[in-house]
Amino acid sequence: MRNPIPRRKPGQISQGYTLAEALDEADRCLVCENARCEAACPLHNQIPRWISALKQGRADEAYRIIRETSPMPEICSRLCPQERLCEGACGLGIKYESIAIGQLERFVADVGLKNFKTKEQPIVQPQQRKRLAAVGSGPASLAFAQNLQLQGHPVTVIERWSRLGGVLSWIPHFKLPAEVLDRHLESLRELGVRFQTGVEVRSAGELLKNYDAVFLGVGASRPSSPKIPGIKLGGVLSSTEFLVRVYYDPSSTLPNQWQPLTSLKGQRVGVFGGGDSAMDCVRTAIRLGASEALCFYRRDEANMPGSKKEVRTAKAEGVKFQLLAAPRAFHSRDSRTVSQIECIRMELGAPDSSGRRSPVPVKNSTFMTDVDLVVLAFGYEVEDAFEEKSDLLTPKNLIKTNPVTGATPIPGVFAGGDCVTGPSLVCAAAYAGVVAAQNALRYFNGEPWENLASLEYAD
Asked: Which one of 132, 196, 368, 454 has the fewest beta carbons within 10 angstroms of its own beta carbon?
């Protein structure tokens, strides 16, 4: 068995494979039948098939194969937690190191996109052409728009903020360079997708007066905010505010009158949370010159919900971890800006509903930590965005859909992504957009809405 290509060092994380490295790594693939990696991919990418093409030096063909199932491989290859998905299911990984599927997909996407030509749009008679709107401009809406525009149906993507991309627009650039997102958006414009920014939609029904169908892909962008004394102090930010202020396009107007954040030189930064957003924040703090970046999490490392690779990389970059620690209060020396964190030590008790052991406070174990900035990465919730609450929303504020079709209880309205499932993966949101687009075509072809929307249909 050939040795795997060495994984990049933390400082090289933004670099991809060379052609020679990609071919060497692809040559390790067993090209399994009934491949477990393919079954583990939310988009059901045909991984053995495109790796076979790459083995033969046909990167353009490999990219064409990926695009049969993935609407945005240049993005998903950079953001997917492959160790939990395709690479975690790799048959070779049972005895050896798994194939670096994510790195290979990224190589293929970066090379193949240069020469890739989308198929010509089918001729749709004017009387058959439908007008669609997609609300929100994250991965679900972009995938929905791409798929229907390719079928000749004009799509308008409506975004309430000034910058397109939804959550993609504030992902750290060391993971997703801004030019990669910009290139993807430009490819959609070339297809004919139209974009409106600075427009907030409060009623799906109102949109249906001007469009034949609507897709709701508004994501889950409202930060969870627990009741902790001192949480309103200056210098206590949500992960969304922190990342937007750092990575949002400086030529665009930042939302909520936020100001750009360009340096943390000499500052001590405390980040709370154990998921990928928390890792994005602590790794960003390091890059902005923080003298110390601390990650506080109430469980142990084995129970952190985010990518293990991200945690390893954060450690290698100098992030320090305070595990089994939960916040009790934030304190200020001047009554205006946070200067200290009060935490309490935790221990793991009985498992909760998720199967993870619940953290339990340890008596008389509080401790203080001096900080200059606090970032809360406790997760996200779906905003109460639409007037049709009783028709659209579950008690948890998620949008009701048939998960097989993306159809909501309102005829003509589809939905997908985090606003349906709660916070999840970019690739899962993109797949939801693809599914909704496929079923919008069925709707246009005469499929009764009750068939598309009925949960019984999903059984």
From this structure: 368
Q: What is the mean pLDDT of residues 382-401?
A: 87
Domains along the chain with CATH numbers = 10-115 (1.10.1060.10), 132-220+382-458 (3.50.50.60), 225-379 (3.50.50.60)
For the stretch 95-129, pLDDT in tens is 999 999 999 999 999 998 877 766 555 556 656 89
Asked if 63 and 109 count as a contact pair (C-beta separation under 8 A), the reply is yes
Q: Tell me if 141 sits within 8 A of 217, measured CB to CB.
A: yes
CA dist list (Å): 263 to 268, 289, 313: 12, 7, 21
Token pair recorded at residue 82:
């492959």
pTM: 0.93
63 is written with which tokens? 């990219």
In the numeric block, which tokens belong to residue 143?
Answer: 């995938």
